[in-house]
Amino acid sequence: MEKQRYVIIGGSAAGMAAAEAIRRLDPGGMVRVLSDEADAPYFRPLIPFLISQKKRPEEIFLQGRGPYQGSSIEVWQQHRVAGIDTRAGLVTTENGATVPYDKLLIATGSSPNLPSDIDGLDCKGVFALRTLADARQAADRAACTTRAVMLGGGLLNLKAAFALLERGISVYLVVSSPEVLSQLMEPDDAFLIRQALDQAGLKILTGRKARHITSDTNGVTGVVLDNGDHLPCEMVCIGKGVRPNTGWLNCRDITVDKGVVVDKYTRTSAPNVYAAGDVAVTFDPLTGAPIITGLWTNAVEMGSCAGSNMAGHPRAYGGTFGILNATQVARMPFVSMGIVHTSGTGYQCHSRTSPGAHRKLVFSPEGDRLVGAIFVGDIAKAGLYRAVIREKLDLARMKDKVLDHRLHYGDLLCARGAS
C-alpha cells in the first residue's frame, strides 16, 4: 500500500498540531509542512519575551517540546503557497515548487489588521507584532527607544507593552473603547485588571483613536490623537485584531466567507482538503453561529481534530466559544469564556467581588444553564465551569453550588447523568 501524502500549509499552532496527530495515527504516512516564514515553527504567544529579552528564539521553537516532537515531519521553511489545484491534487509555491498531496490542510493563520484611517503606518519604528521576525525587529528598535505608544488593547499588545516596560521604556496604551480588554469583558468586570495595569506603570488612554504617526529620518517621532494631542515616542505597536490569510486562495472549489468554511469534521467544500485554526470558519457551540477566532488554544484543538480526520479517524469538532481566554496581565490572572457581554440583554448575571478577586457568572434567561463566566484574580475551578458551559448542562439541582463556588467534579458527573 502506498504511503499517504499529507501536505499542511502553515507551520503554526493548527498546522503543527495536525502534523503531530497524523504522525501518531498514520506512522507510515509522509507529512510535509509548508511555511512561509524563515524560522522553524515556534510558540507565537511567547514572542513578547524576545522584546523583554527574557527568552531567545531557540527557546520558543515548537519541535522537540511537549507534544510537538516533530518525528519524521518535514518542514519546508520560506515556501509561500501560490495556489492549489484540487483536481490534480497539487500545491504550488511562489518559489516554483510543486507539491502533490492526497490530503491537504489549510492552516495559513491570520495577519494583523492595519487600520486604514491612520496615516504614517509605513514609518520606521511601527510594528504589528505577529511573527518572530516582527519581535526581533521590535526588540532591536527598543534598544534606541525611551517612549512607546501601543495602539489597541488586545492581549498580545498588552504583553508587548509589559515587555517594553520591563526594559525601562515609558509606554502609553491608547484604546478607542471605554476600557481595556473590551472584547473579553465589560468595563465593570475589568476594574481589577485596570488597577493592576495602572500600578505597573502603564499609562492608559481610553476612548481615543490615533489619526497620524509623525516621523523624521530616524523613524517614528510621535502619535497624533483624534483630540489633537501629540504623544512623543520612538516606537508604535499596532494591536487592532487580525484577519484570516485567504488572499492567496483562488480555488473556486473551496468556499471562502471571510475565512475558509468547514463542516464539523473540518472538511472544506473541496474533496480531501481540510482547514483549521485562525483561517477557518467554525461555529460557536452556544449559539451555533459561524465564528473565526485567533486563539492559540483553539487552533491547537482544531488542528489536532483535522489531523485525525485526515488520517482516517473521523472526529467531530465541537466548535469554540466566541470568547475563551485564560491568561495573566500585570500579574493578574483571568479567564473569560462564553457569553460575557450582557448589558441590555435578558441573560441572568451574578457577580461577586472580594479583595483581589472578581467573578461574574452568566446564566440563560431561564436561569437553568450557565452560558458564560469571568474570573479575575482567582481562577480556581475555571476548567469545571468551562465544561458546564460547553456541555450545556441543566443546573436545576446544583445552581446554588455554582453560585457559591462549591462546584466540584462529582457534581459535574451527576449533571451529565441527568442531562
What does this structure look like?
The protein is α/β, with parallel strands linked by helices and 419 residues long. Helix content is 21%, strand content 29%. The protein has nine helices and 27 strands. It has helices spanning 13-25, 48-51, 132-142, 155-166, 191-199, 296-310, 382-390, 399-403, 409-418; strands at residues 5-9, 30-34, 73-76, 81-85, 90-93, 98-100, 103-106, 110-112, 126-127, 147-151, 170-174, 203-205, 210-216, 219-225, 230-232, 235-238, 242-244, 256-257, 259-261, 273-275, 280-283, 290-291, 324-329, 332-338, 348-354, 357-363, 370-376. A five-stranded parallel sheet has the order 3-2-1-7-20, with helices on one face. It has a five-stranded parallel sheet with strand order 9-16-10-11-12, covered by helices on one side. It starts with a strand and ends with a helix.
What attributes characterize this protein structure?
5-stranded parallel beta sheet; alpha/beta; single chain; 27 strands; 29% strand; globular; 419 residues
